[in-house]
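Tokens as discussed.
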């Protein structure tokens, strides 16, 4: 019996995008508003959030499609906090339930990042530096920097469509 081997190295092309990490304490809608004003973009909240773990974890996402340059901008939250009640195992006179807060990250490699700004196009270094500098001019932003997407283990979490 003959064995057929398929080589798919060239069949799939890596998606090119620029990823910027943003550290701040702002609510997602407030950050989207500030980015819209300072970068001249029009981020708008999508109708549905990103759902993972069968709907138990969701991340807010804002998106804008630039029709002139054919580029999609996405602002997505990296942190999701959920509360759940857990019964205590010990026996007591009263049924005790503890309220436990669990924290999940969209990109676990960057646990302290609050938001990611994903630009679905590989932009020039000077334009990327301009965008980061514009973000850093906002007094509410602690820091922002570029992330090398080739080093991420959880790249598949950044596929939004």
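Sequence:
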């Amino acid at each position: 019996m003959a064995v057929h081997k398929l080589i798919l190295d060239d069949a799939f092309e890596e998606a090119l995008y620029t990823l910027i990490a943003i550290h701040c304490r702002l609510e997602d809608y407030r950050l989207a508003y500030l980015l819209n004003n300072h970068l001249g973009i029009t981020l708008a909240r999508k109708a549905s959030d990103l759902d993972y773990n069968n709907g138990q974890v969701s991340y807010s996402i804002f998106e804008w499609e630039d029709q002139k340059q054919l580029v999609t901008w996405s602002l997505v939250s990296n942190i999701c906090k959920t509360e759940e009640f857990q019964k205590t195992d010990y026996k007591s006179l009263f049924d005790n339930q503890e309220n436990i807060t669990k924290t999940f990250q969209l990109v676990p490699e960057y646990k302290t990042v609050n938001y990611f700004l994903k630009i679905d196009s590989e932009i020039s270094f000077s334009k990327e530096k301009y965008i980061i500098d514009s973000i850093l001019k906002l007094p509410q932003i602690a820091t922002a920097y570029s992330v090398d997407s080739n080093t991420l283990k959880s790249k598949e979490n950044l596929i939004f469509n």
